[in-house]
């Protein structure tokens, strides 16, 4: 799996490439919330400053992580 974040400072989109859909995503901490937009994208909305780790898992159990810093 490959993860990539794009978008503005306020709202960003996490895009997923590779692996096998469907995907689930979890975030550590309360720095941001994730909302699934479509089969391969999650919207990230900041809630508090700090660092959060996002973990995405595909249907076969393969995982990818990305650390996001909310400023």
Keywords:
four-stranded antiparallel β-sheet; 0% helix
In words, what does this structure look like?
The termini are far apart. The mean pLDDT is 86. The chain has 71 residues and is mostly beta strands. It contains no helices and 7 strands. A hairpin with a 2-residue loop joins strand 4 (32-38) and strand 5 (41-46). Strands 1-2-5-4 form a 4-stranded antiparallel beta sheet, with no helix packed on it. Strands 3-6-7 form a 3-stranded antiparallel beta sheet, with no helix packed on it. The protein has strands at residues 2-7, 12-17, 24-27, 32-38, 41-46, 50-57, 63-70.
What can be said about this structure in brief?
This protein is an all-beta fold. It contains no helices and seven strands. The termini are far apart.
Assembly type of the chains comes to: single chain
SSE string, helices as H and strands as E: EEEEEEE
Mean residue pLDDT: 86
Helix content: under 10%
Count of β-strands: 7
Q: Which helices and strands occur, and which strands form pairs?
A:
Elements: E1 2-7, E2 12-17, E3 24-27, E4 32-38, E5 41-46, E6 50-57, E7 63-70
Antiparallel strand pairs: 1-2, 2-5, 3-6, 4-5, 6-7
